[in-house]
Amino acid sequence: MKPNFKAALSVEPIDGKYSCSLEVFLGDVKVWNSGHYSPFFTSEKCVLELTKLGDLQLKGARERVGWRTGTSGQGVERLQILGNGNLVLVDALNLIKWQSFNFPTDVMLWGQRLNVATRLTSFSSNSTTFYSFQIQHDKIALYLNSGKWNYSYWEFKPSKNRNITFVELGSQGLEFFNDKHHKIAQILSSKRIQQPLRFLALGNKTGNLGLYFYSPDKQRFEAAFQALNTTCDLPLSCKPYGICTFSSTCSCIRFLTKENGMDSDCGDGISGGFCGRDEVEMLELNGVGSVLRAAPVKVNISKEACANFCLEDCKCAAALYSSGELRECYLMEQ
Questions:
Q1: What is the reported pLDDT for 149?
Q2: Where is the Apple domain (predicted)?
Q3: CATH classification of 107-232, choosing from 2.40.50.140, 1.10.418.60, 3.40.50.300, 2.90.10.10?
Q4: Residues sharing a CB contact under 8 Å with residue 30, sequence separation 6 or more, in sequence order
Q5: Which positions of the chain have pLDDT values less than 70?
Q6: How many other CB atoms are there within 10 angstroms of residue 167's CB atom?
């Protein structure tokens, strides 16, 4: 039996409080969440109300509104979920006044469009960094976002420098369209599948992008395509001070500990932060690269000058130097 869409009022305990949100599920997979960017916490009650003026609201104690659609006075009469998973508010003429498809989170459903300059974001539960999937005029790309820095780690560009206006998830792949609604490129499933794709998701643990279909035999969703296929291609494949090796395992820099493996903590005994320190040392690692890319800080400079740029900035944790024709210098923040 194929999974269907359902909407639910969700209450989850977090640190003595409760998060209150309106959510959409496809089977047991959460595909939309009203509190994705700004969680609403309450301690006593969680109420979903469609007001007389047509505003859908989440309320806590003392009528405190934690989330709303902002549709007062637009003639909204009911809330319903469509067959494609779009949660909508409609008026008496069945015209849509608000829809969840206009507020993407970390999942894109079949038939959903994302225009240029929109993004999906995925937040790690125990980290200050987050992942984003961004649609730009010339490409789609995955980014690791940390503070003011955005590091790309995967991208796809249509051929012949064709510009993207929007992308849409079809039954067989992710499709790219121009401003005349002509398809200019597509990313197809890497597997032969008999079932249509149901959603695209950006993982909050790995930052990988996947296209998913439902397998009736295994009764679960499986990836028909993944942007990153090896461990070392993932943006945070190892913990701090670890290096991902050719055998897809993690090794500690300088072998500061005897621990190796994906869960090894190479930073034991190393206090974080360099600001306020009198002495900071740069350690050179030959033959080590990074999947993370940011705009180069400097070009046509020496390796020594690149290292000095990092040393002069106490928020800089590492410098990546490319000795190619452009001699590029990239800085990476803590």
A1: 83
A2: 275-334
A3: 2.90.10.10
A4: 23, 24, 107
A5: 126, 254-265, 267-273, 276, 278, 334
A6: 24
